[in-house]
């Protein structure tokens, strides 16, 4: 690549820098983007070495030998040179040479590794993924020091290509799952900025479904646990979230913290999350259905309190409930978009002030505020942000059906929901596993979390090549030091 071709490619780019090393001959040229390459490496290390080398010899092979540049960093055409420049490399070109050299130098600014912000950690490593793809792969390799961890680099997009990495544990991950992910990524034709959340929508089995079929996590320990189970991890350059697949609905209610706790506490937490999600779906619809069509379901003492509470409310229970749910969602969205400290204040103070004002104005009853608040809190218990948002959206049609058809509407809503979930797949695998198809042997790490010594086999859902993780009998042996 000469100076003219470089300027043609970067016509409107002012950060392209060209340096002539062997003045006045000018046979050895150096190209780099000042916004991508590290200036200290260029002017403190590379240029002084090049000038010293060029005093004796200016052949490209000699320069590569003295700089310690491997053959993999050779550049043979303009397209490859442009790609290296955009990734932060320094391209060295010698006139009349058949190839050039790409010297690594990354001067881009990245975020330091911090604790997870969305998936908070109670117990376990206080570390989260960042926007640097190589750093994220390094984090995973640090905790999985095995040559069986395979890493494939893929490229998505033709106009603006983005780097995507696929990781899986060879000998454990199913080849069919690996081929499915590889094919879906290679078949993509995108011309937009890519993030793992966008990629998940494109390669999902059913992108029109409200329910996510690929796990998104910022926690390396969750990704590593998935890799050990036989899942496939997908990392995208510029995204601090990894994708895991295939996955089941139950896994969205599980947290890596479950494995750091005693099995009894972990089981209680999982059952509580499942109960909270069901409660979030049916609590407000039951209120609407009972007050609209089924007064006989409410005990007499409670019915009297409900009548007194709603005596000033001019709206029917359906519109009253929809109004309160909408206000809760507005407060939640406002709190998420505002700065952290202000958002917390708006969420707490706004909820109290608006709730009290609405009751005093007669727009709603005290009991409905309690019910809506319980439903909202229940949806926030989900460890996954995506599944929590899905539950909050599904709640609205459930409330509408309850207001129109009563208890029959709730039954119809759950029937449609169950039918939809049973038809969903994740990379071709059943989404409702182990509920459907029924596999009681995998329930020990589903609704509950059995003792670790009992989890000697991987979930059959992933179709792993190696079912056994360790010897169960030996894991249960307790030996004293003198035995």
From TrEMBL:
InterPro entries recorded: Spore_Ger, UPF0353/GerABKA_families
Query: In its keyword annotation, does this UniProt entry include Transmembrane?
Result: yes
Q: Which GO terms describe its biological process?
A: spore germination
Membrane-spanning segments: 271-293, 343-361, 367-387, 399-422
Sorted alphabetically, the keyword list is: Membrane, Transmembrane, Transmembrane helix
Taken from the record, one Pfam family name reads GerA
GO CC list: membrane
Q: Give the family per the record.
A: Belongs to the GerABKA family.
Q: What protein is this chain from?
A: Spore germination protein
């Amino acid at each position: 690549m000469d100076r003219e071709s470089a300027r043609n490619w970067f016509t409107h780019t002012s950060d392209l820098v060209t340096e002539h090393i062997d003045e006045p001959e000018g046979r050895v040229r150096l190209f780099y983007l000042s916004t991508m390459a590290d200036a200290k490496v260029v002017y403190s290390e590379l240029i002084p070495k090049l000038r010293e080398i060029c005093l004796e010899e200016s052949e490209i092979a000699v320069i590569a030998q003295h700089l310690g540049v491997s053959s993999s960093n050779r550049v043979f055409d303009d397209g490859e040179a442009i790609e290296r420049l955009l990734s932060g490399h320094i391209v060295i070109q010698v006139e009349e040479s058949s190839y050039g050299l790409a010297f690594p130098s990354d001067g881009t600014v990245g975020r330091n590794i911090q604790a997870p912000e969305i998936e908070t950690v109670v117990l376990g490593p206080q570390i989260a993924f960042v926007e640097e793809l190589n750093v994220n792969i390094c984090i995973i390799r640090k905790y999985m020091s095995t040559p069986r961890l395979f890493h494939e680099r893929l490229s998505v997009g033709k106009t603006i290509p983005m780097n995507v990495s696929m990781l899986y544990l060879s000998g454990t991950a199913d080849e069919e799952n690996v081929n499915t992910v590889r094919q879906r990524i290679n078949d993509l034709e995108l011309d937009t900025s890519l993030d793992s959340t966008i990629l998940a929508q494109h390669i999902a089995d059913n992108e029109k479904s409200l329910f996510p079929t690929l796990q998104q996590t910022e926690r390396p320990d969750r990704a590593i646990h998935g890799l050990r189970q036989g899942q496939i991890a997908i990392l995208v350059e510029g995204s601090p979230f990894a994708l895991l697949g295939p996955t089941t609905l139950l896994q969205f209610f599980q947290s890596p913290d479950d494995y750091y706790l005693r099995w009894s506490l972990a089981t209680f937490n999982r059952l509580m999350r499942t109960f909270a999600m069901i409660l979030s779906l049916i609590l407000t619809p039951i209120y609407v259905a009972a007050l609209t069509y089924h007064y006989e379901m409410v005990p007499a003492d409670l019915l009297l309190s409900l009548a007194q509470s709603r005596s000033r409310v001019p709206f029917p229970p359906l519109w009253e409930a929809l109004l309160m749910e909408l206000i809760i969602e507005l407060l939640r969205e406002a709190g998420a978009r505002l700065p952290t400290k202000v958002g917390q204040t708006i969420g707490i103070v706004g909820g109290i002030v608006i709730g009290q004002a609405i009751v005093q104005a007669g727009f709603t009853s005290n009991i409905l505020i309690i019910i809506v608040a319980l439903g909202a809190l229940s949806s926030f218990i989900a460890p996954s942000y995506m599944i929590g948002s899905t539950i909050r959206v599904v709640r609205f049609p459930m409330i509408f059906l309850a207001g129109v058809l009563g208890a029959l509407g709730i039954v119809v809503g759950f029937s449609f929901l169950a039918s939809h979930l049973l038809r969903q797949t994740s990379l071709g695998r059943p989404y409702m596993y182990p509920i459907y198809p029924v596999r009681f042997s995998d329930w020990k790490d589903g609704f509950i979390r059995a003792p670790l010594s009992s989890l000697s086999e991987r979930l059959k859902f992933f179709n792993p090549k190696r079912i056994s993780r360790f010897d169960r009998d030996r894991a249960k042996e307790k030996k004293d030091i003198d035995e």
